[in-house]
Amino acid sequence: MVYLKNLTAADFLLCLSLPIRISHYGGTSVIAWQLYCSFGASALFLNMYASIIFMCYVAANRYLKIVRPSGTHVLQSVRTANIVSMVTWVCLLAPSVAYNILFFITQKPLTSIPRHCGLFFSASVSLMFKIIHTFSAIIFLLVSISLVFFYYSTSRRVLQAQQSQLASSEKLVKSRRNMLVLVSIFCVCFAPYHLVRVPFVFLLNSCTVGPVLYYLKEAATMLSVFNVCLDPLVYFFLSKTFWDKVRKASRRANIQQANTESQSTEVKLSIIKSRATSQTSEL
């Protein structure tokens, strides 16, 4: 539950950063581009990789529940989850803050509206930009391998349980389905972005492929932002607390609707009775 809460926080912060990204498309000033290339880019980086890493944590936690159903492993404790989450946010915030500081200290002065953020970069910012995205690609690759491993291991345990006709096979099938949802969302949202992003970073100033990669990168970024819409599926399938709250909310809505209908029925009956009484008195 701790990792799902942090995943929700990452999605919420990403939604808050979207206006900066949207405004730069119709921006007619250098300041709008400066805000986008500094705060907008770092906010997208921070929240995207927070989502990627916390998805991996959620998958690892589900896998540990299968391997260690008793929940005795140290990584399954709430305290450990809080510490891991805090360290993750700090590790993601550090390069984001460093990038923004270096960007504003060394940015190139521009009088016309740039075509891309690379025109603001000094040599030091350009180098830092490439280093950050290289490490980001490595993180994505490691998380991808981890998710495939977790799904493969879960599928293998399901097969073993079905062959042995164990009572827990149905629960394992459900766990495999949840893992498949997580892996599918991860691949759909983040794989295209990284396939385009890494070449774009290193061929940013190329006159031939640079513009093409820019538009591909923007399209892939929009697809990665779509992760915010798909993450509720993760909460729906993986969080029992979330599902219980949805049930309670639907029950509350049904009760309120029933009360409203009963009150309206009583009002109608009282009106009919009053009319009937007035008619009899007139007679």
UniProtKB/TrEMBL annotation:
Q: Which residues form the G-protein coupled receptors family 1 profile domain?
A: 1-235
Transmembrane region positions?
A: 33-60, 81-105, 131-152, 179-196, 219-238
Q: Tell me, what is one Gene Ontology molecular-function annotation carried by this entry?
A: G protein-coupled purinergic nucleotide receptor activity
Reply yes or no: does the keyword Ligase apply. Answer: no
The record's listing under InterPro entries reads: GPCR_Rhodpsn (IPR000276), GPCR_Rhodpsn_7TM (IPR017452)
Cellular location(s): Cell membrane
Q: GO cellular component terms?
A: plasma membrane
Which keywords label this protein?
Cell membrane, G-protein coupled receptor, Membrane, Receptor, Transducer, Transmembrane, Transmembrane helix
Membrane topology annotation: Multi-pass membrane protein
Q: Which domain of life is it from?
A: Eukaryota
- Signal peptide coordinates: none
* SUPFAM superfamilies cross-referenced by the UniProt entry: Family A G protein-coupled receptor-like
Q: Which Pfam families match?
A: 7tm_1 (PF00001)
Family indicated by similarity: Belongs to the G-protein coupled receptor 1 family.
**Name this polypeptide is given:** G-protein coupled receptors family 1 profile domain-containing protein
